UniProtKB/TrEMBL annotation:
Keywords: DNA-binding, Sigma factor, Transcription, Transcription regulation. The keyword Zinc does not apply. Belongs to the sigma-70 factor family. ECF subfamily. Residues 38-103 form the RNA polymerase sigma-70 region domain. This is RNA polymerase sigma factor.
Length: 161
């Protein structure tokens, strides 16, 4: 038998009250309370981060970053809102900060992308594409690609040293 909505709401209020109590105790240095606070809210934070980003793989890093920020901010938590609400607000700001950071960095273009761009430009100028040019030069495409890859690795090694 499923609990009625009012029972679920009451249970959620009780859970929120317990989480808030653990957060308030953790801000005074109570390690046990901090562990219970994290265990009780971790899945909620991760689920919220996945919802905001759509990236389940990157959610773990953002969840950890959220808890690092929250633990640093615990001494300022006063319990005016529930700890879960406070924590999810930190998670939202963490996600926004990551998005801003990622947008400020230049995007890396994959190998396929630059090849596609080059071939499209060559077609517009009525020149043969990469693979056509290689075929015209009488070399197998795989041979040329392996040589280019070997040259990239050699260049990367030289740049690192």
């Amino acid at each position: 038998m499923n609990p009625t909505p009012s029972r679920r709401q009451a249970r959620r209020r009780d859970d929120d009250a317990a989480v808030t109590d653990w957060a308030l105790a953790a801000r005074t240095g109570n390690q046990h309370a901090a562990e219970r606070f994290i265990r009780a809210t971790r899945s909620d934070v991760r689920r919220y981060v996945v919802h905001l980003t759509g990236d389940p793989q990157g959610a773990e890093d953002l969840t950890q970053e959220t808890f690092l920020r929250a633990l640093r901010s615990l001494p300022r938590f006063e319990g005016r809102a529930t700890a879960r609400t406070w924590l999810l607000a930190i998670a939202r700001r963490t996600v926004v900060d990551r998005i801003r950071h990622d947008r400020a960095r230049p995007a890396l273009i994959s190998t396929d992308s630059w090849e596609t761009v080059a071939e499209t430009a060559q077609r517009r100028e009525n020149r043969p594409g990469f693979e056509d040019g290689v075929a015209l030069a009488g070399r197998l495409v795989g041979t040329v690609r392996s040589r280019v890859n070997r040259a990239r690795r050699a260049l990367a090694t030289q740049l690192e040293s």
